[in-house]
């Protein structure tokens, strides 16, 4: 069974839960930006939760099916059609052999996850099918999908239509979006006033927002504690001796625009980071459009772990709902 | 050196050996990250050594942040008492300095540079007190370098020169990063040299290019058949200046699968090095020449 790509959309790529164990060689985690939505999509079609799906951003692809399969689309609100007929999001439906899956224009959110029963079965690279374009790794020849690609799938018909994730379990960011941040890493480089200002100000997602990172604008510039720059760090007060970047860490080059590093981020570099968005909220970033208002909310480790647990409980509830 | 421990979100322990770069800080970071690896702590998923720091990624569902932090801290004394000795390899990397491809690229991004009227090498020579680019190039390749970190993008090595601090070359990054850098460009930023493993954005000054691939996701290149990434922290590098003819010859050899990088096994002892830098380097270069 193959999925014939008639129109790839904007930047649609194959993603799973990511690539573990190669970060120390500069190969990023990769995988879905909204891993919650990816897991839910896979559960709906009866796949392993980590099966490879299509991640499409802002615009959906157009796909012809060569065999009948169960399909589910989760994540952003992007009206789904099969041969022109609308389908429910976060709900499984059947696409028959010869039918075409397509999408209308984006209504809210940023990324959809398209799971197909049997999963996408392109070759694994370093234990994952996730696409890492900078390193030409995974996916289809290490790139986003193109018109004319034929993606192999596991081929099973799956559990069929009508399985659904109930509304309260369809996790999405609020308005304004709130991202919880655990201060740490090089937080001590900021003055107290700058640290407080970071959490007080309202930020907006900048146009430079992709799988590597999300940039934010609109808050006051951050001021640094004065010091003589250490040897090897570089002249700017926001520079450090190049170190590793944590998943979700927030760098602020020059103190002006914070960047939250996401799944395909560079693994390290020479900018200070003020802490990291907690693991439970990283999925939400994947659903933010440019110009969305965002507040960063300061939390401690106990709150971060509490949020992590809540997310797990929600996923467990989906598993329960779907049996 | 004062070790600083912190969390990176709820999934990382971050340990900074020192806020400034030194071989001592690098060695301590490497041996401590090795100690964490050897301890096989359940719940640890990634251990990433960097120049003067390292990061441990863990699964807080398996080990609590406080527990992993305590376990990592316990290993500091082990790193301190560890022999500052490394069995490693020295690799000769051919470099075509002042090549036409990085030259074309640096001219394209001139408005992002500190010196829009010169080249990256002229600028680097000037601010480091050399009379000419050739003299700077000589300083760049005459003494070996230590791979102190692999990262940024897939397989990119950061290198730190094995010379006294007052002999270290220092060059700032571009005022604003380029959107393009040729694959295998030999770059420079702060006190670090690097090799861009893939084409893409970059902020380091560009000095030349190597014909030797260091990353190959398809693993077709002969010396990357076993693993797609060539470098690992602790490798030692000697740049070898080459001209266009040699560059083309190596490129052809890589293409037909006959290129074999020159590599020698060496022991590096930090105390020995600190006592006699030139002598230690000479010994390693001799081993390389015999390879």
TrEMBL record, chain A:
<protein>
    <submittedName>
        <fullName>Biotin-dependent carboxyltransferase</fullName>
    </submittedName>
</protein>
<dbReference type="Pfam" id="PF02626">
    <property type="entry name" value="CT_A_B"/>
</dbReference>
<dbReference type="InterPro" id="IPR003778">
    <property type="entry name" value="CT_A_B"/>
</dbReference>
<keyword id="KW-0547">Nucleotide-binding</keyword>
<keyword id="KW-0067">ATP-binding</keyword>
<keyword id="KW-0378">Hydrolase</keyword>
<feature type="region of interest" description="Disordered">
    <location>
        <begin position="148"/>
        <end position="175"/>
    </location>
</feature>
<dbReference type="InterPro" id="IPR029000">
    <property type="entry name" value="Cyclophilin-like_dom_sf"/>
</dbReference>
<feature type="domain" description="Carboxyltransferase">
    <location>
        <begin position="24"/>
        <end position="312"/>
    </location>
</feature>
<dbReference type="InterPro" id="IPR052708">
    <property type="entry name" value="PxpC"/>
</dbReference>
Automatic annotation (TrEMBL), chain B:
<keyword id="KW-0378">Hydrolase</keyword>
<keyword id="KW-0067">ATP-binding</keyword>
<dbReference type="Pfam" id="PF02682">
    <property type="entry name" value="CT_C_D"/>
</dbReference>
<protein>
    <submittedName>
        <fullName>Allophanate hydrolase subunit 1</fullName>
    </submittedName>
</protein>
<dbReference type="GO" id="GO:0016787">
    <property type="term" value="F:hydrolase activity"/>
</dbReference>
<feature type="domain" description="Carboxyltransferase">
    <location>
        <begin position="3"/>
        <end position="224"/>
    </location>
</feature>
<dbReference type="InterPro" id="IPR003833">
    <property type="entry name" value="CT_C_D"/>
</dbReference>
<keyword id="KW-0547">Nucleotide-binding</keyword>
<dbReference type="InterPro" id="IPR029000">
    <property type="entry name" value="Cyclophilin-like_dom_sf"/>
</dbReference>
<dbReference type="InterPro" id="IPR010016">
    <property type="entry name" value="PxpB"/>
</dbReference>
